[in-house]
Amino acid sequence: MEKIHYPRIGERVHWYRLKNGLPVCIVPRKGFARKYALFATRYGGMDLRFELNGRWLDTPAGIAHYLEHKMFDTEEGNALQELAKNGAEPNAFTSNAITVYYFDSTEKFEENLEILLSFVSVPYFTDESVAKEQGIIGQEIGMIEDNPEWVVYKHLMQALYENSPARVSVAGSVESIAQITAQTLYDCHKAFYVPANMCLVLVGDVDEQAAIAIAERVLPKESGTVIERDYGAEESLLPYEKEVRCAMEVSMPTFLAGFKCPAAPEGQERMRNNIIGELACDVLLGDSSPLFARLYAQGLVNGSFASSYDLLPGVAYVSVGGDSNDPYAVTRAILDEAKRLVAEGIDEDYFQRILRANFGTAIKALNSFEAIAVTVAEGCFNRYDPYRFPELYDTVTAQDLLDFIRENIVEERMALSIIDPKEEQNDESND
Amino acid sequence: MEYKRTEIMQDVFLTYLPAKKFKTSYLSAHFIAPLRAETASLNALLPAVLHRGTVRCPDMERLSAAMDRLYGAQIDYTVRKKGERQCVGFVASVIDDAFAPRGERLLEPTAALLGELLLDPVTRGGRFLSEYVDSEKTNLIDALRSVRNDKREWADLRLMQEMCGDEPYGVRRLGDEESAAKIHNRKLYQHSRELMSTSRLELYYCGSAEERRVTEALLHAFAALPRGVVEPLPEMRRYAAPQQPRFVTEQMDVTQGKLSMGFRCGSDDVPALIMANLMFGGSSNSKLFLNVREKLSLCYYASSSYARSKGILTVSSGIETKDYDRALEEILRQLQAVQQGQWEDWELTGARSTMLSSLTAMTDGQGSMENWFLGQNATGETETPQELAARLMEVTPQRIMAAAESIALDTVYFLKGKEGV
Fold first, then answer.
1. Do β-strands B12-18 and B4-9 pair in parallel, antiparallel, or remain unpaired?
2. Which residues of B are less than 8 Å from A78 in CB distance?
3. Which of A8, A132, A358 faces B72 most closely, judged by CB atoms?
4. Statement to judge: residues B358 and B212 lie in one domain
């Protein structure tokens, strides 16, 4: 066991490695009634093509998410129910890169942990139950397709990327999930739900020895391997399409602009990269940026305006958007402001303030058990230590941000996704 | 959990929640106003305008700069609906002094900024800056319109409008578009003076600082608060369901239909109704979730919630348009099962432990504790989460059945997709 102390943020973290190789991270929290467990696999919506036992498999879009839904089925019934009976609040989600299962409980933590670890490691599917799930997930897909925020993001990804599975929706489509069978699910489980490809994070006032003993007893003895995945032919840094525009039932237009960035490496450098990208977004587009104040005062954007720098497997991008009656004017202003910053530099006082605010935000995030657990799991998979952020902030300079902006926030790298309101349809013949 | 509520000035109450386990201090201030159609949009617009600038920090850039210097302190305005009350104010969160790299004291300047935002707005000629009023008015109208974007929220809202159209409870949290459009600067400014001098102010602090330090910081920050005669809040009335439920159907160009149902609860046995709601549709172990969603695959989501201050229970679900009749029938069948005591032991114990667990876990979040006590203080209750937990322990199956029996269908709202699209 390795104990790491982070005095600058008042944290301690204990790392264990099980006999089967699974990394287990425990973040002790005295004084909290809640205990939180998160079991994660490095397998997400983008992992569609991979090599299993010497054979390359192409799997249908949406399969990681489908598998997540089906994992709760057990031979005895349903793990969700078992956990809920103990007063635990279980849930799961699938992102582009990972799938996580977690629960939150104030009682019977160890019993609940045992349920979590066993249902995630023991698959149980029947053709009948797989077919039934198609109805439920089909409804979920229907629901997100009515959600403008989701649609504007999906369209942006399809505009930015030509080959990367980043352009494929994590939930898949009604057509793609129709191809899923019990056998495909078993294959994917075998490929990705192995200790070598997973990690366990516990947060709270937990009995560490008891938790480790349960994990040793319940989990498979074999480590398995991290298998090869294929994220498609290498992407150029230019967007595949410049613009995607459609109409939905929304009250005002909404948009999302994306800027393609080079993929980030693994390791601590990835995290530094992430911090630079986020700080650059804040300096250029954040709540206290001159640009935001101006656009807000002009009524070109409102409180929904937001930006982020995202790192996915093999790709990275900056996205910025929100509701606006004139997305072109907003993107024009962003590009102009980027040019101005690059030409004039970043005011040192402004840079220090942004740095300070970001540091405070990172400290605040440590209040959330969910945020802690997900951050630790992502750090574990990408080989960096997320709690070293104070040291990384020390090394970032205004010049780093300017370099990021100069390279990435330029028109050639940009794609734009816009959703317009549908015309009032009092008269159906208007169609 | 320690908790103490003190009147620190006339009709200004501080709820002090000491806790050392968080990384942040949490501070908030809310005026408690009656929820009324005539004033709801004015109240909703006010904190948005105040949030644009103070005399010391007259624009967003300078305001954000002040917050950035406090290590990214966040001060956001909130407008909350608690029963038939509208709570209007600001919530501040700042890193605990222990993590300030240079040992700065952050509570005092954060409290001061909070007070400034409420009491010292930037003005011109005895009014707010008209550009701020105009742009926040546009934002408010956009926000009121944007509910249409989220079809689930829209259907639940339309249900409330249909069911409680004649009650304050039917007023939306942010008021309505028409009243918002009529607001002008002078009226808003007058209203602001009135709200501040005639409403009770509830303050909350959760964090590691001593009570005296918090009280002093707040007394200093709110020294300029005008205090007049504080009007008592009107009583919240409850109504019975009509003899025949009302059915409303509307259409939008959507893939998935939304079925929302509203019920009135006749019983006053709140803990038993909380249990009945949990077993019916209030948890991931409920009858709606397990039977209507999981077993029958009739809905992607189906859940219920119970508003205790008004005795109203609502069901919210997403269904295929063609399944409307089946879903409606099945949801009512599940309610009937609760009324008739048709449940397994684990359903009752699971529901109870879910609720107890969430009450215990509430003390692990600064925002969740504040929201609980604000809800209590706004609706004239004083119950702590522990007290409710103790009352839930005593609820018997007979009481649940009796309470559930008093739940009567009032209104059904269905948002259906366009056929053949």
1. antiparallel
2. 294
3. A358
4. no
